[in-house]
Each structure stands twice: as C-alpha cells, then as structure tokens.
Amino acid sequence: MGISVQMWEKTMSETTIKVDEKGRVIIPKYIRETASIKKGSYVNIKTEGKTIIMEVVAPVADKYFGIFKINKWPEDMDEYAVEVMQKRWTDRAT
C-alpha cells in the first residue's frame, strides 16, 4: 500500500541548501522545529549510497531516567549520564 501525497507532504520537508567550504550545512529553522532539534541536540548521520540520512538522537538522560540516585542535578544531564556509565564500566573492568 502506497503513501498518499497528502500524508507525504505532512511527513517530509525538502529544501536545497549550500555546503560551505568546511563541509557544513545549516538546517533551516522550520526543519529543526519539525524534527525537534534544539541547541545541543545530537543527530545520527549515515549514508546509503549517495543518500545522507540524519536522525535525531534521544537524549541519554531520557534513556536512563530514574536509574541514578542524584543528590544535585547537573547542568547537562546527558554529560552526567555518560560520565556515570563510563565510571561504572571502568569499575567493572578492574
């Protein structure tokens, strides 16, 4: 069963942008808003042939919500979660 044209228009956005001299691109605001990409967000980028696929990565804090006992909330929960997991794996390896 195919996807209807109306449904396609609601789920896909397309625009042409220029790559700068360092290989960077600016994601237009309406696409960032649609994909819920905010300052500090992470994205996963992969290729399939000449196609580039970019997916928003859920924050680490969402994945491990409730698993850590925290006395004081850190400024960046994602960095804190990564540090705790690295310490945990280091402690296990020794």
Highlighted features:
single chain, 94 residues, alpha+beta, Pemi-like Protein 1, Chain: D, 2 domains, 4 helices
Describe the structure.
By secondary structure, the protein is an alpha+beta fold. The protein folds into 2 domains: 5-57, Pemi-like Protein 1, Chain: D (Ribbon); 60-93, no CATH class. It has helices at 5-11, 29-34, 60-63, 77-93; strands spanning 42-48, 51-57. A two-stranded antiparallel sheet has the order 1-2. The model has no long low-confidence stretch (mean pLDDT 79).
CATH C-level name of the largest domain: Mainly Beta
Structural class from helices and strands? alpha+beta
Reading the helices and strands in chain order gives: HHEEHH
Enter the CATH topology name of the largest domain.
Answer: Pemi-like Protein 1, Chain: D
- The parts where pLDDT drops under 50 for at least 5 residues are none
Secondary structure: helix percent: 25-40%
Q: What is the second-level CATH architecture of the largest domain? A: Ribbon
Measure the end-to-end span. 54 Å
Gyration radius, rounded: 19 Å
Mean pLDDT: 79
- Put simply, the count of helices is 4
Name the overall outline: elongated
